[in-house]
Design goal:
Blueprint (H helix, E strand, L loop, with lengths): L31 E9 L5 E5 L7 H16 L12 E12 L6 E5 L17 E3 L1 H4 L7 H5 L4 E9 L5 E10 L5 H9 L3 E2 L13 E8 L29
Antiparallel strand pairs: 1-2, 1-3, 3-4, 5-8, 6-7, 6-9
């Protein structure tokens, strides 16, 4: 699969470490991050998930087909999305080759699934803030090379532990530069305290984050983990507290 395919984050030109800052541990380190577009049912669950770029390699096509088949039979929550809409999501799946190399096993990564509750979170108290951790974070390589500015808004649900799950891209402008994918990745490691600044529980409540991406500006980041030849920069402005 080529680097332009958005199925496997490991093959994308997205770095996974910010300037001099260690990322928090991945709570699903053994699960693949997979970008897909899915339609939303009347029950706010997924259907008809698909990749949005062609896959040339036969082995990768087989793997992708197995993944999409699994998602067809295991719909997941896309809370707050309009029924009938097509939205961009980041799913976590465990994928392994079958003995003999004639296929793949796919299963869902274990993750908390909160019950919907309460109003949108407006005053989070961050343990790992997406602002603090990625102030000089990243945008996709194409956006950096073309000095393209843009923004993306992602909606998630908070778990009792303060992690963010069931995230999907609510708005992205312009499209085609990977801003939505970058925003989804950034929120994978964010974590808030179980109670907001006003003392309300966060579990099951929605959290909406907008990232605004500046152009190249004066930043000349030296990334510790990025594809050869890549250069990326990002500044962020969000709806939550720093």
């Amino acid at each position: 699969m080529k680097s332009l395919i958005f199925g496997w984050v490991g093959l994308l030109a997205f770095p996974v470490a910010a300037l001099g800052a260690a990322l928090p541990p991945d709570t699903q380190a053994d699960a693949a991050r997979i970008f897909v577009v899915c339609s939303v049912t009347d029950q706010e669950t997924s259907k008809n998930c698909r990749f949005y770029a062609p896959i040339d390699d036969p082995s990768e096509r087989l793997k992708a087909g197995t993944e999409l088949g699994f998602l067809d039979t295991h719909p997941f929550s896309i809370p707050g999305a309009d029924p009938g809409a097509d939205v961009k999501v980041l799913v976590r799946l465990k994928v392994s080759a079958v003995a003999g190399g004639k296929g793949f096993d796919v299963s869902a990564a274990e993750a908390a699934s909160p019950s919907p509750a309460g109003a949108e979170i407006k005053d989070p108290v961050w343990v790992v803030s997406p602002h603090a951790s990625w102030t000089a974070g990243f945008v996709p390589e194409r956006a950096f090379r073309t000095n393209q500015t843009g923004e993306a808004t992602v909606r998630c649900e908070a778990t009792e532990a303060g992690t963010l799950v069931n995230c999907w891209v609510r708005h992205e402008s312009p499209t085609g530069f990977g801003f939505g994918e970058a925003a989804l990745l950034l929120l994978q490691h964010a974590r808030m305290k179980p109670l907001t600044a006003s003392g309300a529980p966060v579990a099951g409540r929605a959290y909406v984050q907008t990232f605004k991406y500046a152009g190249q500006g004066a930043l000349s980041p030296q990334w510790s983990a990025m594809s050869p030849g890549s250069s990326m920069s990002m500044s962020m402005m969000g709806s939550g507290s720093h």
